[in-house]
From TrEMBL:
<dbReference type="InterPro" id="IPR052906">
    <property type="entry name" value="Type_IV_Methyl-Rstrct_Enzyme"/>
</dbReference>
<keyword id="KW-0255">Endonuclease</keyword>
<dbReference type="InterPro" id="IPR007560">
    <property type="entry name" value="Restrct_endonuc_IV_Mrr"/>
</dbReference>
<dbReference type="GO" id="GO:0004519">
    <property type="term" value="F:endonuclease activity"/>
</dbReference>
<keyword id="KW-0378">Hydrolase</keyword>
<protein>
    <submittedName>
        <fullName>Restriction endonuclease</fullName>
        <ecNumber>3.1.21.-</ecNumber>
    </submittedName>
</protein>
<dbReference type="InterPro" id="IPR011335">
    <property type="entry name" value="Restrct_endonuc-II-like"/>
</dbReference>
<dbReference type="GO" id="GO:0016787">
    <property type="term" value="F:hydrolase activity"/>
</dbReference>
<dbReference type="Pfam" id="PF04471">
    <property type="entry name" value="Mrr_cat"/>
</dbReference>
<dbReference type="InterPro" id="IPR011856">
    <property type="entry name" value="tRNA_endonuc-like_dom_sf"/>
</dbReference>
<keyword id="KW-0540">Nuclease</keyword>
<feature type="domain" description="Restriction endonuclease type IV Mrr">
    <location>
        <begin position="64"/>
        <end position="184"/>
    </location>
</feature>
Amino acid sequence: MSELKEFAPYRTWKSSAAPAKNGDPEFTETPLSPVFSTPQEQIEQALSQIADALASEVLEAVLSLSPARFEKLVVDLLIAMGYGGGDLERGLQTNLSGDGGIDGIINEDELGLDAVYVQAKRYAPDNKVGRPALNAFVGSLTGEGATKGVFVTTSDFSREARDYVARVQQRIVLINGDRLARLMIKHEVGVRARRTYVLRSVDEDYFSDI
């Protein structure tokens, strides 16, 4: 990762067409008022670009996982987000065969009286999840008497799938590939800090009159 060595203000220019003697317009550039960005603004812009690039790298790494490992990743992420009280023992990964369309279960209380059911699909980016897959997931939730579900995919959801979920009785959250990667970054699942920069400012309280 290249380091930011210098923060410099930049100036914008505009092109104007002025009539020439031969009738063809002549283009000249005239400076506008200088547009300055502070070092903090440049850092924030750089961090945004780094986050976008990292999200793509994270999603690429997720796509390399096996289906079973991907399902475990999703359960780990939800636990890291605070579901199940952040207790790993409350997150269960179901068997690969005969799971009834449920890939994971997270008990939100110690007795398991309230649970979130998880479906995870590791699809190629151009293979969107359609309504039939969501319909099957809703059927699985109904069969379990469940009211909460999270459907996670590495691709995206079709408009029909999103519209369908908005009308069902169960509360279902859809997480596509981009959101999955950014949640993993935010909650530090599959990523780690390489370097930390500290941005300091004047402590007004220290300089205030006692």
